[in-house]
Every structure is written in structure tokens, then in C-alpha cells.
């Protein structure tokens, strides 16, 4: 998709794939790089940020330097491609997010040998995160520049926080059960709710390290006061690559579970008079594919920064993905959520990056969406294995929610949105319209599932 990035509101675009993403600026190269490793969720995914360019790119010809433009680009969800006219030809630049790496590939049609120069700004390391982030010095090691950071959230400092996102924000459900004297939803617990043995005990709620390496084959590395400079010879007609690799210090290598890719049906949306919306619709399958976490087959909540795996977002996304034939990832999402329920069998609102349940709501809307995706996938595939595998959980949630019914037929619960309950004026005793509707839709789906597997008693009960 051809785009002039300087004509867009934010003067740039996101590219994303699996666990890595970047923001490409019209004027300043790459201004943000993020990685979804084992660090805390939300803004801790941001690792390198600089308004004037984390990475900028130029080519040197006969001692004269030419900046490579990133405004007039060909955009895809995982990559952009641009071309810069030089005195002796055209230099093509491709930036691609791939797994846990960001790859920059450069080729030139010039007849003369040139040099690709990549500038890494020293002021790029990002620290405005949840908890504390500590960076080690950037060092040249084995032909690369390597940096490390450590993210920590310590209980005592964290629990003393005030404001909209108070001190119990982002505490995983198993840890909440351990440290609080009574069950408390995220946003409702304070330091006084800690068990006596944790009132003055400190420990790390999160402690994660990440390693980032920068470089490419045959790179010469120079250090200045403001930047690291990487130079590579650019032979006529040949490609050269510069790569940023991200990895988790404590994490073993994970093989990607990739089978043959399905051919998705191209989304078509007919909206006469709105050509840009029609064009956008054709990009939606690629956008979803760009944020699938390859280790698990489930999408992150969005392609860009911040958000990790949210149950609601993933389920809504994959119900729609069935419209363009993505049965494989829809079924992987069903399996992931079924296998990562919390201890009580409920579906969390989201998970930590190490897959601990986080912000589990009362049963309701999310259970309905899981049932909807299971049933829609069955209608697409006619394979009832997923119906049968999910049924015990559905029945357990059905029975648990029955106990929450009020005499008027309403369902008690604070709603699926996981935080800032007080701002919404909600508690566990509330009756939220969307949750009530979701409960009865869940019952109808359960009735249909029972009919498909010839369970007459369950069909009548639901």
C-alpha cells in the first residue's frame, strides 16, 4: 500500500510481527522499537524511543552522505519499503519486523561501491515504565553492540502508589491470592489488605531481563558522544543487512510452531464514496497476522506498542478472522484460552508475559465470547472435538453464573473491563447490561452445543 507518511496525522506508521514492533517516522527513520518479552505488560514493551530517531539511515558516496528517505513508502503490516534517488542510481531500503528481530535490508542500483551508515542514538533507552528499569552500558561485543536492561516491580514500593492505577495494579491472580487477606479485584486492594506476613516483606512482583544486540555482517562500529555508528560496504546490486535482535535473559529458545500457511480470503468491503475504508479492509488479515504470537498462535491486542494478550480482544478478533478463513489461528486461540484459565476455571481478562492470569473478572462476557468462537469454529470445520473439550468448562461456568442470578434475572458482576472499577461506579454486586446480555447469549450457545452433541438434558437446562 503506497503511503506518504508525512501526510498522516502521526507522521509515521507501525510495523509489527510476533513479539517485536517499530514506529517508522516520515522524517526521522525509526523513532521507537518495542519488544514483548518477559517484562511487565503495558508500557514496559517500549525499549528504545527517541523523537529525532532511534535509528537513522544514510549512504555515503565519494565522502558525501545522503540520508535515506522514509516518507514515501510502500507499507505492509510487517514492513515498509522506500527508495531514495542518488546521483548514481536508486538505494532501496526495507525495514521488516520478524519474530524477535527488526531487520533493515539495503540494496543499491548504483555502479559505484557505497557505504550504508546506520546511526543508533545513545539517548534512545526508554525508562518511563511500570516499576524500575535499569540499563547496562551499551558495549561493543564480537562485532555487535549489545545492551541489557532489567525491569523490576517490588511489592512495597508498588503497593504504596496512589492515583487511578493504584498499587495493586498488574499483580497476577496467583500472587493476589497469596498476599491479600481477602479476594480483591485489581484496583480495589490497598496496603492494609495485605496479610500480616506481607505488611513489611518485600519481594519482586516482576523481575525480567532483556538482551538487545545491534549489528550486521561485516559491520564496522564507531562510537561518538551522541551515537553508535555502524557502517557496511554496499556493493552494486547486492544487499546488506542490519539487524536488532531481542531475547529474554532467562528464557530458553522457543521454536516457532508454524505449519503450512492457509490462504486467507481477501477482505472486500463495498462502501461507495469511501475508497480509503475499502482499501483498509483489504489490510485487516495482514494486520491480525502481524500480531500473532508465534509461540502460542494467539493475537496480541494490537499490532503496535503496549498491549499483550487480552482474552476479549483475541476472541473478538478471531471470530472475525473466520470470515477470511483463518481457522488455524482461531482454533489455536480457543485452545490457548481453554488451557490458560485461572485456578477457579475462569477466563482472565489478560495474562502476564509469563502467562500468569491477570485481572480475572466475574464470569460473563468473556465466557460468552469463548463459547461463540468455539461454536463458530465448529460450524466452519464440523469438527466437534473442540466442543467436547470445552464443554466441562462451559458447564462449570454455567453453574457458577447461575448462583449469581438475581431474582429479576439479572447477573451480578462488575463487568469484563478489568481496572478502574470505582471510576465506573461498579462492584462485584453490580449488574452490567452487557454482561447480562452476554450471559443469556452464552446460554443459547450452550443449548446449541448440547443439541449438536445430542446431550438432551443439557439442552433443556440451558
What are the defining features of this structure?
single chain; 462 residues; alpha+beta; Beta-galactosidase, Chain A, domain 5; Glycosyltransferase; 3 domains; ten-stranded antiparallel β-sheet; five-stranded antiparallel β-sheet; 23 strands; 25% helix; globular
Main beta sheet: strand number and arrangement?
A: 10 strands, antiparallel
Mean pLDDT: 88
**Strand composition percent:** 25-35%
Shape: globular
> How many individual β-strands?
23
Q: CATH topology of the largest domain, which one?
A: Glycosyltransferase
- The low-confidence runs, each spanning 5 or more residues with pLDDT under 50, are 250-264
Total of DSSP H or I helical runs spanning 4+ residues:
10
Supply Rg: 25 Å
Number of domains: 3
Fraction of residues in helix: 25-40%
* SSE-based structural type: alpha+beta
Distance between the termini: 48 Å
CATH architecture descriptor text of the largest domain? Alpha/alpha barrel
Q: Helices, strands, pairings?
A:
Layout: E1 2-4, E2 12-17, E3 20-25, E4 29-35, E5 46-49, E6 55-61, E7 64-67, E8 72-76, E9 79-86, E10 89-98, E11 101-108, E12 114-121, E13 132-135, E14 139-141, E15 144-154, H1 155-159, H2 173-179, E16 204-215, E17 220-223, E18 227-234, E19 239-248, H3 275-290, E20 292-293, E21 298-299, H4 311-321, H5 327-339, E22 350-351, E23 357-358, H6 365-381, H7 385-402, H8 421-424, H9 433-452, H10 456-461
Antiparallel strand pairs: 1-8, 2-3, 3-4, 4-5, 6-7, 6-12, 8-9, 9-10, 10-11, 11-19, 12-18, 13-15, 14-15, 15-16, 16-19, 17-18, 20-21, 22-23
